[in-house]
Write a structure and sequence with these properties.
By secondary structure, this protein is α/β, with parallel strands linked by helices. It is elongated. It has 21 helices and 10 strands. A hairpin with a 2-residue loop joins strand 9 and strand 10. The protein has a 6-stranded mixed sheet with strand order 6-7-8-3-9-10, with helices on both faces. A 4-stranded antiparallel sheet has the order 2-1-4-5, with helices on one face.
Length: 572
């Protein structure tokens, strides 16, 4: 949790003011029982109305200062907790956005969502509680002990005798409780994952009548979360009743011993009244420390999880490389594996000149998208090299490298924003570039037909558009920046043949300077490309033009004949 200090540092002034106000208010709170005891033992026997008024007024002033100070200090504590958590979430989100795909896979999306929400919430609770009770509870405890010792040593020693047992309880619960909270957060990650899967796949679940199964699956993970939370809360919850019992036993002993001392004339009635008041103060202080202890235990597990992301070691660093190439894009002996057990790509070799077009086709799971991931350096190759513009991609800064691309992924999304902003995507592009991209993507007609045209606000994920309309807007987004390299990863699957053909023609005429890489399932989408790669099981089975592959690659020819056969049947 040491990394948290850096987030508290900007608010040192506010924290210092809060601690000062809280200290003054707490000291006023400590004075009240002593004043009460003094009034009972000294002022009342004097039968002086003036003294009673003076001491009573002093007691009221202390109460007002205590209440006003605590309210002000608590507001400051809440503001510090809020702003600290906001900064942590901001940095955590920025860090998540900069994680490599490999590290994101390692953490899992569900766990990252849980860390930026649930874990930061736990840190927020800890910060607020520490600032509210972290100074007040110790002052009440130490001050109460000091005052009671000054008032009557034998009575004070009676309840001080239980402190070692209380400390032992804190230590035992801490050792057992913190690992339980870590286990709880891991089970929360699983629940978030199930929820995300169910929400994103709700249509498939309903279509296949798997609602009951998914309810049962959620029930299993929900029961796991409940069981882990119950274990953790029971372990930490034992602290309150155990400490309460110890202190109340001590209070009973104080009253019992105090009665004998009053009868013997060694202690005044006011002292016993003050003692019971201080005992209530000390009891609340210990219970406050207990609450801090429970909150810190939970937050410690969360802080460890958040810190592991914030300070995760970067893995896709800029490197030096002697690799050079004359071609614009070059793959040299590339091999890659996600799990490092079985290669997903093996011995990938090809070159592509600037302005050329490349089609990548092959069965599902053949490694088409993996090849694109390596080109954009979402992952590093296990062996071999990927070069762009004559340089190894590992020698580029990530921003410099990614600025070369316009890309549409298989599962890309539209945001709950206007069509214009979805295409512009925060890049402040010229209006003419946005309009040209929409026209080339064959989206102008349907965009003009929307209620507010290009300024129409879409539903989240573009759920108010058809599949083909969404794909055309996503293609327009990729085109709008006039990228050096345009990647269309199975991005025309929802387009009819006529629209697909018009799109390819528009790309040739309006974006001739861009190097276009198209990943597709349909032969018709790639047959006019300058080069075509046929992938199977992570290997290049054929490389050449459509005509060359029809002659030299049996798998490509078989695929083409099957698809052409379906096209002919459909036409008939």
């Amino acid at each position: 949790m040491k990394w948290l200090y850096a987030y508290f540092k900007p608010f040192r002034g506010r924290i210092g003011l809060e601690l000062f106000i809280k200290t003054v208010a707490t000291l006023m709170d400590l004075c009240i029982p002593w004043i009460l005891g003094h009034i009972i033992d000294v002022v009342i026997p004097s039968r002086s109305i003036g003294l009673i008024a003076v001491w009573g007024t002093l007691m009221i002033v202390c109460s007002i200062v205590c209440v006003a100070g605590n309210i002000s200090a608590n507001r400051l504590a809440a503001s510090v907790a809020r702003d600290t958590t906001r900064n942590i979430r901001h940095d955590l989100f920025a860090r998540i956005m900069s994680l490599s795909s490999a590290r994101t896979d390692s953490f899992t999306a569900a766990s990252l969502v849980s860390r930026i929400t649930d874990d930061t919430y736990n840190i927020n609770n800890m910060t607020g509680r520490l600032l509210r009770l972290g100074i007040r509870a110790p002052i009440l405890l130490v001050g109460g002990m000091a005052i009671t010792l000054s008032m009557d040593v034998p009575l004070a020693l009676v309840w001080i005798a239980v402190l070692p047992a209380a400390i032992g309880i804190f230590i035992a619960v801490s050792v057992h409780g913190v690992p339980l909270f870590s286990r709880l957060q891991s089970s929360v990650d699983k629940m978030v994952q199930v929820i995300r899967e169910n929400i994103s796949g709700v249509r498939v679940i309903k279509a296949l009548s798997r609602t009951d199964y998914e309810k049962q699956r959620f029930s299993w993970v929900n029961d796991e979360v409940s069981a882990n939370e119950e274990k953790a809360n029971i372990s930490m919850g034992l602290t309150n009743p155990a400490i309460n019992m110890l202190l109340n036993i001590a209070l009973s002993m104080v009253i019992f011993v105090g009665a004998y001392r009053v009868n013997a004339g060694r202690t005044g009635v006011g002292t016993i009244v003050a003692f019971t008041s201080y005992f209530a103060v000390i009891l609340n202080a210990v219970l406050g420390i207990t609450r801090i202890f429970v909150t810190v235990s939970r937050a410690a597990a969360s802080a460890k999880r958040v810190g592991s992301v914030l300070y995760d070691e970067a893995d896709l660093l800029k490197e030096e490389s002697d690799e050079t190439a004359r071609a614009f894009i070059c793959f040299r002996g590339v091999g890659f594996s996600y799990n490092k057990n079985r290669e997903n790509l093996s011995d990938i070799d090809f070159e592509l000149n600037r302005g050329e077009t490349l089609g990548i086709i092959g069965p599902t799971g053949s490694g088409k998208t993996t090849l694109i991931n390596l080109l954009m350096r979402f992952y590093d190759t296990d062996r071999g090299a990927v070069l762009i513009g004559g340089r190894d991609v590992r020698t580029y800064d990530s921003g410099e490298l990614r600025s070369k691309f316009g890309v549409v992924f298989q599962n890309d999304i539209l945001f709950a924003d206007s069509v214009r902003n979805n295409v512009d995507f925060g890049r402040s592009l010229p209006e003419e570039d946005i309009n040209l991209a929409l026209e080339c993507a064959q989206a102008t007609d349907f965009v003009n037909g929307l209620p507010k045209g290009i300024d129409t606000v879409l539903n989240p994920k573009g759920n108010d558009l058809s599949g083909g309309q969404k794909q055309r807007l996503l293609i327009a987004r990729a085109l709008a920046s006039k990228p050096e390299i345009l990647i269309l990863d199975d991005s025309s699957s929802a387009l009819d043949y006529r629209t697909d053909a018009a799109l390819r023609e528009a790309l040739r005429s309006s974006y001739a300077g861009s190097t276009v890489i198209t990943v597709a399932q349909r032969i018709s989408s790639v047959k006019d490309m300058d080069k075509i790669i046929f992938l199977d099981n992570g290997r290049i089975e054929g490389l050449g033009t459509h005509e060359e592959l029809m002659k030299n690659c049996a798998m490509y020819r078989e695929t083409a004949e099957l698809q052409m056969g379906r096209d002919i049947n459909a036409a008939e």
